[in-house]
Structures are given as C-alpha cells and as structure tokens.
Specification:
It is a single chain. Helices cover about 35% and strands about 20% of the residues. It has nine helices and nine strands. The strands form two sheets. Strands 5-4-3-6-7-9-8 form a seven-stranded mixed beta sheet, with helices on both faces. The protein has a two-stranded antiparallel ribbon with strand order 1-2.
C-alpha cells in the first residue's frame, strides 16, 4: 500500500444476505421518521375519496378469497397449493411472513385454517405498522409472532418459506429504501422459498419499474416475474380491492 494512503473500509457483510440490505435501508432512513414517510407516501389515497370515505376500508375484511384472486394467475395454482409444494424438511412447520396483516388479520386466519385442514403445520409471522387489538389477540393462535412498526426497520431472525404481501410494506416502502427492503425480504427466504407481492397502492408500477426489479433479481440468481391479478379490469380495481400488478419471486 502506498505511503500515506489509508486502507479502504469495506462492508464485511456479503451483498447476498438480508443483513446487508437491511443496513442499507436503515442508512437511508436515518434522517427521517418512517411513520412520516409512510404517511407522506400514502397521501395519494385521498384521490380515491368518495362520499367522504377513503376507499380502502376493505382492508379490514380482505381474506383468502381476495388474496387468491390476486395471486392465482401468476402462481398457476391456489396460494395453498403453491405453499404446500415448497421443499422443506419433514416435520418442519411451514414458516410464512404475512406482510400487512390488516385490522382483523383475516387472511392469516383463513390461511391458517386451510393449512390445518390439510394437516400442514405452519407458523405465521405478521407484520403490521399499527396492529389493532383484534390482531394482537391472535398472537399464539393464528399468529406465531407479531412484528409491530415499520417493516423496513425489521430484520427477520431466521429464513422463512414464504412471504405474502398485498398492499403491505413492500408496496408502501419509501421509494429510496424500497429496493433494499424488497431484497432483504427475498434474501430472507429459504432455498426454494417464494415471495408474492401485490403492488399498486403505494407504488407506481410501470414498465421501467418492472424491468428494473426483474433484472435486479435475475442477476442475483432469483426467479422473478410480474403479472396481473385474475379478473383484473379498471372497473373491478377502481376501489383498490385488487393490486394493479403482482410480483412473484422464487429463491433458487
């Protein structure tokens, strides 16, 4: 090394880990409140106001049927059928992150019931910015764990089998941290694990965005593609019931 020159400091964490992208996201959030960023980015929902009510009140009642219509086309099968074929060790519970559980955690509740009927043991980790008392009451029965607060600031403790997000933190992440937040979650998957995300509530999903996301995943060895929800149409989606686009990612 030349005299007088300082050694270059390198991040000791591999880029191919959730930890790396977690800390990159935190660096970009360190000067702003995630709560304020979330509120600012959500202002666009005001344009959906009708009769004095913002049309996202369906959130409290979004259940398995709505999620399944969102993701069935891109999965080529139902959500339950996609989950049951994820490779895992015998006797190991299926571990799922539900990003954005909603007021009543209805999707998690119905998904857990369907998996129980198939005798598939599962652990559902719920992400919620501000969980309701009703959602909190489901910890220990429906939810294995509940993560409160901005998901951008949370690092999953162990790899999971699946991540399911519809209008969750992936969609509403502050644009400057969205890429790292999404990669952090994808790298939190086990080999063969899948991520499905419904977008369009907080994210402007255009051709440039989709091309960039797919390329970012493919160069890292993931399978990734975008699609549209089943029965998608401007009239059906006017109230924000379904995402405008859905993202599917598989860790190879």
């Amino acid at each position: 090394m030349a005299k007088g020159k300082r050694p270059i400091k390198r991040n000791p964490i591999s880029h191919d880990t959730p930890e790396y992208h977690h800390f990159k996201a935190l660096e970009k959030l360190d000067r702003a409140s995630a709560r304020i960023l979330f509120d600012d980015h959500k202002i666009h929902l005001l344009i959906r106001e009708r009769g004095g009510n913002i049309i996202n009140s369906w959130e409290a009642n979004r259940g398995y049927r709505i999620y399944n219509r969102s993701f069935k086309a891109i999965l080529g099968k139902s959500i339950v059928d996609a989950l049951r074929v994820i490779p895992r060790k015998e006797g190991t519970p299926l571990t799922i992150i539900h990003d954005g559980i909603g007021e009543k955690a209805r999707f998690s509740t119905e998904l857990k019931s369907k998996l129980n009927k198939l005798k598939i043991s599962s652990r559902i980790i719920g992400f919620s910015l501000e969980p309701s008392p009703e959602a909190k009451a489901k910890v220990g029965t429906v939810l294995w764990r509940l993560v409160e607060g901005p998901a951008e600031k949370h690092l999953p403790k162990k790899p999971v089998d699946a991540i399911i997000s519809e209008f969750g933190s992936i969609d509403y992440a502050y644009p400057k941290v969205q890429k790292n937040h999404l990669l952090k979650l994808a790298y939190s998957l086990k080999k063969g694990g899948i991520l499905m995300a419904g977008l369009g509530g907080g994210t402007i999903v255009d051709k440039r965005f989709m091309t960039g996301v797919v390329k970012a995943f493919q160069k890292r060895g993931f399978e990734a593609r975008f699609g549209k929800p089943k029965l998608f149409s401007p009239l059906v989606n006017f109230s924000g019931t379904y995402p405008t686009f859905v993202l599917f990612v598989r860790r190879k």
